[in-house]
Amino acid sequence: MISIQGLNYFIGSQRILQDVQMRVVGGELVGIIGPNGAGKSSLLKLISKENHGYSGEILINGKNLKKYKILELAKFRAVLPQSNYLAVNLKVLDIVLMGRYPHFNYKPSSEDIRIAKCCLDEMGMAGFQERMIFTLSGGEQQRVQLARVLAQIYQQRDGILLMDEPINGLDLEYQQVILEKAKDLARLGMCVICVLHDINLAAQYADQILLLKNGKVKDFGPPEEVLTEEAVFDMYHTKVKRIEKGILGYTGILPSGMG
Amino acid sequence: MIEKYKTIFIISLLLFLIGSCILSICVGAIEIPLGDLMKIINKQFRSNNPVESQQEAVLMAIRMPRVILGLLIGGTLGICGTAIQGIFRNPLAEPGLIGISSGASLFAVMFIVLGNSLFSSLTHYMGYYALAIVSFLGALLTTTVLYKFSVRKGRTSITTLLLMGIAINALIGALVGLFTFIANDEELRNITFWNLGSLGGASWQSVAALLPFALICMGSLLFFGKPLNALLLGESQAEHLGINLQQTKRTIVVLTAIGVGACVALSGIIGFLALLVPHLLRMTVTADHKFLLPGSVLLGASLLVLADLLARTIVIPAELPIGIITAIMGVPMFLAIIIKNTKEGNIS
Question: What InterPro entries does UniProt report for this protein, alphabetically (chain A) (predicted)?
């Protein structure tokens, strides 16, 4: 469970987040959406303990985030960053095994290796484990990184998964595969928070949507309540038509021109 | 599959090292054929024949300590290069280029010139150890300064790093020049030796002086495979994987300073070896630090022992400074890396 109370965050004198409240219970997938510069990635970086210096309180599974040791947190919380810049060429399986780093000391156990292979398989990359990462396409590399993140919190019921734009550079099939996977993890009992640019994907997969604009929470609730035509116009200054849940199985949003 | 491949590579590196050592022990101004080498070694354990041949004297008093010193220095520089490139996340970080070695040498030179008058009791009691410790402090100081200035938000600015290296090297060059000016003849000879690098001063005492520093440095750095691998994903990802970055970096900086400092104290500045070794391994085998760290000890040791063999045999009976040999081996590699990085847009 993640519970955030009165979160304020400044970079220099610039206010990035203002009085953010939110509560995510295990079993939920929360989509954070909002225009560029709304503070989405900053919020995620605070929850992942990557950035510090905020005021307010972030509780993870009932314990203050500041009281967690880095390793303790790494055992059940995985983060997929926006860009996955890799300094050198490594073997795919070695990269996925890094996801098991919090769980072994020096040498991975056969169980760690089994988990890594299993996660690669789930990302449709089973045949790639011996390949070098730079020989793969951008989308394939992204799937390898996802497999690494999955391996880190493999079957942790109280696990937490934070993803910043996980579907960047992925084709239609893998956009669905990855969010479906995220949804599965949520169903297993994990908290999944996902920054998304695509409103429709957020509407399709998220249980709750957090609308963020200028560092403030505009709304927080189920997609069909939050994603009104007015709210979307207010966020993006773009006229949209809303497609009701009955047709697609989720609330769809289609742009119909600038306002 | 790949694991087996890495083991095979480590074994071949080990064999290469043993070969280099035997070759280096046997060849020189006085040749010691393999058969004689065996006889002499055998004799050491029985010692019922007190008469020493010339070969035996050369072997035990000169060749052996020199090869062992080469081994220790090469291994230490190799692993330090790998570790420094790992924490700076940059293939161009090399103790010589970015000024760590010169920081160590400045302190060493200062100690030589001022030591006799200021710390005469210290030099008297601690000898080589005092010099090694002082050089370690110099290396530690420059590494800390470099890190503070060139790493911003977890990314190393290559430009800043190399410019800092140029600045530090220039400043230290000037200061060393100043000390040369006030040094007497004997001190002058010692200083010259520092700037060119040589294993010519090898003796059992110098081996004993280096041994604890080299073992601490190499022995501890070998355990950093996991954090250095995680760093390949970037600093924030490494933290998300549970690596305590601040502690890791601080420990590596101190261990590298211990290693480089002690090496500089005993052999002067031996450039480019620390750059060459990790690159050769990364290109031929893998960038996995669990292999890279032990591999760079073995390859560094072999290459330095061979470089020293060249340095002392090319112009018999004189000797070339070993820095010349390592630079000739290393500079083309350095240029190749710069060209490759420029093409990939990593340097602008």
Answer: AAA+_ATPase (IPR003593), ABC_transporter-like_ATP-bd (IPR003439), ABC_transporter-like_CS (IPR017871), P-loop_NTPase (IPR027417)
Residues of A in contact with B233 (CB under 8 A): 84, 86, 95, 98
DSSP A132: B
Residue B269 lies in a domain: yes
| Residue span of the structural domain in which B170 resides | 2-343
What is this model's ipTM? 0.89
Judged by CB atoms closer than 8 Å, whether chains meet at A91 and B236 is answered as no
Residue B348 lies in a domain: no
Which has the closest alpha carbon to B229: B289, B278, B277? Answer: B289
Measure in Å the smallest separation between the Cα of B287 and chain A Cα atoms. Answer: 6
Q: Which residue of A has its CA nearest to B88?
A: A87
* pLDDT single digits (tens) B142-176: 888 887 887 776 666 667 777 888 888 888 888 87
B282 touches A: beta carbon within 8 Å: yes
Evaluate if residue B347 carries a pLDDT over 60.
no
User: What 8-state DSSP symbol labels residue A107?
Assistant: S
What is the tens place of the pLDDT at every residue in B78-94?
A: 999 999 888 877 777 77
* d(C-alpha B256, C-alpha A61), whole Å: 40
Q: Which regions in chain A score pLDDT beneath 50?
A: none
Q: How far is residue B224 CA from its own chain's centroid?
A: 18
Check pLDDT > 70 for residue B346. Answer: no
Determine the distance in angstroms separating the CA of B279 from the nearest CA of chain A, rounded to an integer. 11
Q: How far is CA B131 from CA B117, B137, B171, B190, B226, in A?
A: 15, 10, 21, 12, 33
| Residue pairs between chains A and B whose CB atoms are closer than 8 Å | 67
Mean pLDDT, chain B, integer: 83
Query: Which residue, among A45, A85, A88, would best test binding to B if mutated, counting the most B CBs under 10 Å from its CB?
Result: A88
Q: Which residue of B has its CA nearest to A89?
A: B287
> A102: which chain B residues are within 8 Å (Cβ-Cβ)?
241-242
What pLDDT is recorded for position A74? 94
Q: Is the peptide bond before B33 cis (omega within 30 degrees of 0)?
A: no
Q: Which residues of A are less than 8 Å from B2 in CB distance?
A: 91, 130
The total number of structural domains in chain B stands at 1
pLDDT confidence tier of residue B344, bands split at 50, 70 and 90:
low
Judge whether residue B101 has pLDDT over 90. Answer: no
Q: How far is CA A252 from CA A168, A227, A232, B177, B333, in A?
A: 20, 9, 12, 74, 57
Question: Which residues in chain B are closer than 8 Å to A41, comparing Cβ atoms?
Answer: none
Residue B120 lies in a domain: yes
pLDDT, tens only, A24-41? 999 999 999 999 889 999
- Read off the pTM: 0.86
Q: What is the pLDDT of residue B1?
A: 45
Residue B209: pLDDT over 70: yes
Is position B103 within any domain? Answer: yes
Instruction: Tell me, yes or no, if B279 comes closer than 8 A to chain A by beta carbon.
Output: no
What's B301's domain CATH number?
Answer: 1.10.3470.10
Mean pLDDT, rounded, for B189-193: 72
The residue of B240, B292, B337 whose CB has the most chain A CBs within 10 angstroms, and thus the best one to mutate to test that interface, is: B240
Chain A residues whose beta carbon lies within 8 Å of the beta carbon of residue B287: 88-90
Name the token pair of A82.
């926006």
Q: What Å distances lie between residue B188 and A16, A227, B110, CA to CA?
A: 60, 79, 12
